[in-house]
Please model this.
Amino acid sequence: MAIDRGELAGRIDHTVLGPETTPADARRVVREAERHGMNACIPPCYLPDVETEVTLATVVGFPHGQDAPEAKRAAAERAWEDGADELDVVCNVGRLRAGEDDTVRSELEAVVACVPVPVKVIIEAPLLDEDEKHRACGAARDAGAAFVKTATGFADGGAAVEDVALMSEYLPVKASGGVGSYDEAVAMLDAGAERIGASSGVAILDGAPE
Model:
């Protein structure tokens, strides 16, 4: 499908989450999001450094998802208090692979319950086999999450159309990890994604029809 620049902008979470991200980087991404009509996603430590009217997301348990459950809940609460409108929390892939689905679900459920904002669950799909992807998405759905998200972008691989199609059977999908062009973004939307997470938000929009 073709999607015009204005409609696409509102479906992009313009992102900066690298380990070298500075306060200035976070403010720049928020300004770009404001200018182009996108959402923004920045590290939680920089939430107090920005003031904006755009939808502002941040991450919890990023990038490996191995924080203690209590730490994830505390981080989620603090991020909301600091102004986050949405939270992207990383699933504990190791516990999922160990077959501890109930533990994964209960941890996510506790995060969802402790904040009054939408929670997206990053399942890190490139690291999972098909059965694990289904189980991770089921845990996120049963925990009351608003979205499932393909990847952090910090493991091998990123968003893939086949993963988006699978995940969209459970919840709305945020396709994230390696989406760098308009054509790639449209492919993800065609596969069933509702949102795109990308550090290349401006470049994606530059390729869109007016």
